[in-house]
Each structure stands twice: as structure tokens, then as C-alpha cells.
Amino acid sequence: MAEGIVERTLVLVKPDGVKRGVVGEILARFERKGLKIVAAKLVQVTPELAARHYAEHAEKPFYPGLVQHITSGPVFALALEGRSAIAVVRLMTGATNPQTAAPGTIRGDFGLAVTPNLIHASDAPATAERELALYFGPADFVAYARSGQEFT
């Protein structure tokens, strides 16, 4: 992991992923990649939180479906940290449409449709900062060195 700067990013396993019982598999993929979990919790997203999370989509025709889905059940929120974490997580997540997502990606392997597509991942550093603050406070983050990465 010598390339890239250490970043922190938000990942949400959406209600369809929680209800289907694939949180552990998704989490294991990120851990095997070498990303560090620095915060995690199970959350019931309220309509107010959904509106803040998806604010940039408020005027788009698919917005009501996004809010309905993200509030339909528990969401597993996690903050991941690692070198180039944002790009790495987005690559592992796969295309928004699971029908065109590459095999081996989370959506390619588990996704069924565009809106219930299992997972959300921040797309840029500014987005990650804003989204992380929606789900976690400063005291929620835990700093530690992963075994074998003490010197990276």
C-alpha cells in the first residue's frame, strides 16, 4: 500500500443488503483488501437524514425512490480508512446498475436492481467528509494500526 494518500470514506450497506444478510461478506471484502474499519454502526435512517444525505438529488425524478429505500429498514454504516480508500471502495462496489456491474464487484456479485443496489460509497473527498459527518461524530472514530501495517 505504498501509493496514494490515506483517506477515510463512508460506506452504507443499504436495507436490502442488511435484510439479505450480506453485511458480513461485504465487510470481509473490504478487510481483505486491507482497508481499516474506523467506525461502524447499525442505523435506522430517518426521512430527515435521508433528505440531507441525498440533498443533491432532491429535484431528480428518482429521489423519492432513494428516500423510500434508504428508510425502509436498517442500514449498516461504516467508515473505512486506507490509501486511496475512496477510489478503492468505489472500484470494489461496482457500477450503480448491478446488471452492468463487473463480476467480482459487490454489486456485480450481489446486486439485483438499480435502487436496491446493496451499497452506497462516497465518490470524492469532499463528499466523504460531508457524508461521514451525517452518520458519525468525532468520538465515534477509533484510531489503531492493523496487524502487519504498523510500518506503512
Task: Output the CATH topology.
Answer: Alpha-Beta Plaits
The CATH C-level name is Alpha Beta
Question: Biggest sheet, open or closed, and with what strands and sense?
Answer: 4 strands, antiparallel
CATH-assigned homologous superfamily? Nucleoside diphosphate kinase-like domain
Number of domains: 1
Share of helical residues: 25-40%
**Global geometry:** globular
Reading the helices and strands in chain order gives EHHEHHEHHEH
Question: So what's the oligomer here?
Answer: single chain
Q: Architecture, according to CATH?
A: 2-Layer Sandwich
Secondary structure category? alpha+beta
Strand content: 15-25%
Which strands sit side by side, in order, in the main sheet?
Answer: 2-3-1-4
- Total strands: the figure is 4
* Average predicted local confidence, pLDDT: 94
Low-confidence stretches: none
Contiguous helical run count: 7
Task: Report the end-to-end length measured between terminal Cα atoms.
Answer: 7 Å
What's the alpha carbon Rg, rounded to whole Å?
A: 15 Å
Q: Your description of this structure?
A:
With 152 residues, this protein is α+β, with helices and mostly antiparallel strands. The chain has seven helices and four strands; from the N terminus they run E-H-H-E-H-H-E-H-H-E-H. It has a single domain, classed as Nucleoside diphosphate kinase-like domain (Alpha-Beta Plaits), CATH 3.30.70.141. The longest helix is centred in the first third of the chain and has 11 residues, at 23-33. It is globular. The mean pLDDT is 94.
